[in-house]
Amino acid sequence: MTASPSARHFLFLVTSSRRAGNSEQLARRAADNLSTTDTQTWINLADYPLPAFADLRHATSENWTPTIEGHARTLLEATLAATDLVIVAPVYWYSLPAAAKLYLDHWSAWLRAPGYDFKARMADKTLWAVSTYSDTDPRFAAPLKETLRLSAEYMHMRWGGHLLGSGNRPGDVLDDAAALVTAETFFTATR
Ligand SMILES: Cc1cc2nc3c(=O)[nH]c(=O)nc-3n(C[C@H](O)[C@H](O)[C@H](O)COP(=O)(O)O)c2cc1C
Fold this sequence. Notes:
Layout: E1 9-14, H1 22-31, E2 39-44, H2 70-81, E3 84-88, H3 98-110, H4 118-122, E4 126-133, H5 142-154, E5 158-166, H6 177-185
Parallel strand pairs: 1-2, 1-3, 3-4, 4-5
The structure holds flavin mononucleotide (FMN).
């Protein structure tokens, strides 16, 4: 008898600056193929705006610890509750949209927040990325992918992979047949 894989809880963090864009549409296609034992939560970062990040690590005493409150606390707790974290992010200037980058910057505070054990708990998780861009050459999405892949490596997280589709106007990605085929098995192929 083979053991069934344990249930996963996916957190989809939508980071585009417009609603229901190509990246979210592609991510929802991929999510449609999750196993029935997997659960999913969707959060649009526009609904939980984070404050500008301030690096206070060396500003006060050596024992400085951040206080995490408001939307930052909601996002931190949602992040820790997931087994699988999916950054849904269009390519903006070859890299991440500002909202996604700001979320990552806040990890630097969360790493130092007492009571969360952020780094150790992140190490149990898998980081994935789902993106769209108006190009067709994946070289032009490499900085986005590498930002996330290297961040996963730093956090000792597993790297799930990068699902990349092409499109410019909302809905265009649904014409990218290859991306839609990849989406069907994206979250399940390597299980
Ligand atoms: C600020 C901004 C920067 C962009 N930079 C790039 C880029 O560097 N390369 C690219 O191929 N497309 C770029 N695009 C196009 C978007 O990636 C494309 O329209 C994508 O489908 C948007 O995804 P969304 O619908 O999920 O927001 C940019 C769009 C915006 C608004």
